[in-house]
Amino acid sequence: MTGKYIINKVLSNNVVISEKEDKLYVLLGKGIGFGRKKGDIIDDEKLIEKKFAAIEGEDREDYRRILKDIDKDIIAVSEEIIALAINRFGERLNSHIHVALADHLNFSINRLKEGIDIVNPFLFEIKAMYPDEYSIAQSAVELINKRLNIKLPESEIGFIALHIHSARVNQRVTDSLKYTELVKEVIDFIQKETGVSLNQKSFDYARLISHLKYSLYRIESGKTLKNILLSSVKRRLRDEYKLATKVCCYISEKLHKEVSEDEIGYIALHLNRLKNNA
């Protein structure tokens, strides 16, 4: 049997879980699961369009758990979404997404069936911070709705995007959500300080959110991006620099990290753009 894939579970006509040399693999291919059952052997590589080791290490038993506890149609569409993301990005994802995404979809679909609203207060921020992941998540929701004959709300796009992003950067979903939540809090802080309601659909709003995302990463990791315009910003954009200083004090308190003057200067520039285009 060495070198051959032994089917562990057929999820759909196009997705099967298999074992090879004591490793779990997800195999995707048109018709690869049709008419097959547990214990069957797949030794024709031409049938396999996408292959990846599903789970290794600590998550292996968790994946076996979801194979038992979660409807196979939900796991199948989850695996199709993961394959879609891998194809779009051309890069590997953290294997934990095989557990986390299926668990999340199962939870969301059950809530939907129970008539419980799925609310995502960070939808605009997720869309602006992770546009590529959000685009894939849009396709993912369309696929889920088609495969499972349901109607997931738009809020789910944001949650799926977070799962994809987290798998790309080897980060827990809770950590990705922490940054997203902090960006929203900073935006709310700016609106409160200025008394101006920012247009969430504007290009400048999206650009500010994108900059804040990278600023938070740099601040938390202790990295500095040199700002050659700093002296000019401090001299010519005094009001914006003053507000940016308050914003960065707020960030500093939240992250327990010092914020450089260079970062304050960059945020001041974005505040100036928002002011001029208000």
From TrEMBL:
Keyword entries, A-Z: Repeat
InterPro entries noted in UniProt: BglG_antiterminators, CAT_RNA-bd_dom, CAT_RNA-bd_dom_sf, PRD, PRD_sf
GO biological process terms, semicolon-separated: regulation of DNA-templated transcription
Family matches, as PROSITE patterns: PRD_2
Occurrences of domain PRD (ranges): 69-174, 175-278
Molecular functions (GO terms): RNA binding
Protein name: BglG family transcriptional antiterminator
